[in-house]
Amino acid sequence: MTGAPLLSVEDLEKWFPVRTAGLFARQARLRALDGVSLTVGRGEVVGVVGESGSGKTTLGRAVLRLLAPNAGRILFGGVDITNLSRRAMRPIRPRMQLVFQDPFASLNPRMTVRNIVGAPLVVHRRGDAAERAAAITEALELVGLPRGAAERYPHEFSGGQRQRIGIARALILRPDFLVADEPVSALDVSIQAQVVNLLLELQAHLGLAILFIAHDLAVVGHISDRIAVMYLGRIVEVGPTREVLARPQHPYTEALFAAAPVPDPRRRGQRALLAGDIPSPIDPPSGCAFRTRCRYAQPACAAGRPALREISPGHVTACIRDDLLLGPSPRGAPS
């Protein structure tokens, strides 16, 4: 990444008040984001991976200001948007858009594709009727849908086509930045590659910056320039995609890679799967949050929260191990 980032997140925190169950019920905080810092450059794709409950979706919605953070800072295009009012955010909204996970639930079944895709133009009062019609046609063609699709309804399309409709709606305002929140997880494997490749083509054609949220390392590895790994509301590793996938430095990243499905039966016995479940974000472990599932855990891991440290240029990880030297690629990992 060169130049100032388009998006910069600094020590972002988001918690939700909850009441615990049981005899000794109490008010507590569910920490969805616990001091997250991340940047996305102009025209860059940054993938965010982690298990369910790691805070990925909360991060995506917080950077779009769909959720108000409790602490930290969000800079977009050099402007601090952390505490902007709805009115002050209005001119910024068209520049940052969201592609939802479920391509059916995110589309109103009673609206035609024309009205769905054109809704942002109406909300932001862009163009007259003729200009809006032309923009809708262009957006549909951009995502590979025929012109006749505009008069049909969401139930008349396949899952992959419905996701294309959602992408067309997100792009019709020509944003600079896109949050793609698990955009292919609800699709058949045969369709996932088509949608991911479409996003790559659109990113190159329009110069989009994308925060691509997923739990599938293979998908993230295909589309991303850099990967950020989240665990229990914290980022534990960030680095160039090829380097992170070839030489994961945090034990959690290593475990995620090992747990990914592999076609080679000879490697199945070598896979170190994640043990146990992700701890509760209401009462996370002290020190390193991953220590309760880490095969390298030491007593010192409970003493304090490890800070991100640089292993190589642009590659950082939060682990106290002294053997983080970017050693040889694990057998079977991409190089």
Name of the top-level CATH class of the largest domain = Alpha Beta
Radius of gyration: 21 Å
Along the chain, the helix and strand elements come as: EEEHEEHEHHHEHEHEEHHEE
Which segments are poorly predicted (pLDDT under 50) over 5 or more consecutive residues? 328-335
Kindly give the count of domains. 2
Quote the distance from N terminus to C terminus: 21 Å
CATH topology of the largest domain: Rossmann fold
Task: Specify the CATH architecture of the largest domain.
Answer: 3-Layer(aba) Sandwich
Give the full name of the CATH homologous superfamily of the largest domain: P-loop containing nucleotide triphosphate hydrolases
Task: Give the rounded overall mean pLDDT.
Answer: 89
What percent of residues adopt helix (DSSP H or I)? 25-40%
Q: Specify the number of helices.
A: 9
Q: So what's the overall shape?
A: globular
Major beta-sheet overview: 8 strands, mixed
Strand order of the largest sheet: 6-7-8-3-9-10-12-11
Number of separate strands:
12
The secondary structure category is: alpha/beta
Strand content: 15-25%
